[in-house]
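User: Can you write out an input/output pair for a complex, sequences first and structure second?

Assistant: Here is one pair. Inputs:
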Amino acid sequence: MTGIGFRKDFAEEFLQENQLKVDFIEVAPENWMGIGGYWKKLFKEVLKDYPLYTHGLSLSVGSPEELDFSFLEKIKQFLKETNARIYSEHLSFSKCENAHLYDLLPIPFTEQAVKHVSEKIKSVQDFLERKIAIEIVSYYTPVAAEMKEIEFINAILQESDCELLLDVNNIYVNAFNHQYDAKNFIDHLPLERVSYIHMAGHEKVEEDLIIDTHGQDIIDPVYGLFEYTIRKMGRSVPVLLERDFNIPELKDLQKEVNQLNIIKANALQKKFAHAS
Amino acid sequence: MHPDIQTHKIQSRLASFCRSGENSGLKGVSKGRLKHYRRLVFNNVNSSLKSAYPLTHNFLSEEKWLKAVTDFFREHVCESPQIWQMPGEFLNWLTEKDDPLLKECEFLSELLLMEWLEVELFMMEDIECEYSTQQNAQRDKLLINPEHRLLAFNYPVHLKNAAEITEADKGNYYLLMHRHPSNGSIVFTDVSVFFAAMMQHLSNENQNINNLIQKTCTDFNLQVNDEIFKKSKEFIGKAISTQLILGFTN
């Protein structure tokens, strides 16, 4: 299954024209819950035709403060009403001292953060009565790290017993920005926990720095890393194409979706051919 | 120091840097790259505000606009997890602190309010109500569209380009904004004080046309006459056609 991050920028076109054929859509609940009028109508329309995956922005499981349970209750209601198949969030913080920042900041890789964040993810899963998938975010500088990134991530995945949303582009971006081997990083992830994959483009803003913009086409090395990941996993999981800015025509997004489908099919074929 | 406190402190410093652009001793980071977080976070907030307040943004100099946004994001604790609601907090923040920006130009608070209410009305949850488009003996009370706002202004911010508004325009203006049930668009209707009062009555309580006209005339010490009745019926007819008035209820 391959889906598209459903954005208001192309929502009408997506519904009216048949230029982008996907298996599911993904939205951020924050952008579609508690609203009415035009967007509500349009959202209802799209839900008639597509299963929904959700990817939160503001729960901020990495915040130092406690979870916002009233907000979580609204998320739960939204997931129920829309019959959402997956709820995922970011391994980052977007709120501090109760002030929302509306962006994803890196959590310090510390033992205390592991404990605190894992507890919060467990609380979210208990409250929602479902497993959630956590995405490894792109980051541009480590923040007072006491351990390696991979140790930090794996400890949280294990302690919280949550699923992993593997954003392959983020792994590529982080490997480039922090000069490590992306494939080696993937090798050390618990791939059995991967329930969902994100793919996107990025922008190189300095000689040694990439920003995860979701505003460009996916580049070949990221496709290559995607193929590597699928082969390594040896199984199919839903894949999402994210495009948030600088959005091209839908037929061009379709080309990227097709490319993802081809790579996934080939990678799995090779894997099974090799096994037999 | 307890490590938990240490981690919390680091996160607070990073968040504070993103909100203010001032680094208060954040260690263990790449300083050359830290600036990107401030840039990305601030740009996101600034574009959301520009998108909610396009008229205000066009009217103000870039310097004044950026100062207001910078001060807001540094000083205000943004409460809503939904970014589309954040511009409403911006307006409340400016109003509550009686920001000097609002004093510079008398109509700015009205312009901001109009722009924010347009966003809020456009996005707000649907309010369900039962009504009929046909009037009959049992169902003769008018029902105003509950998705509306009635505003009284001292300046014609809904009628003129902000750059062209002068002191000479000062007066009494009334604006009705409502969300069209079919297409979700926001309809702006400039109304006289008489019809503003009439819609206020209707907003307070569903009532039939005759009572509504009578009540409004009483407010203004007027006797209902043919002319008033005719004009009122015309206004109500037009309000029904734009779905400011949805129809009839009992």
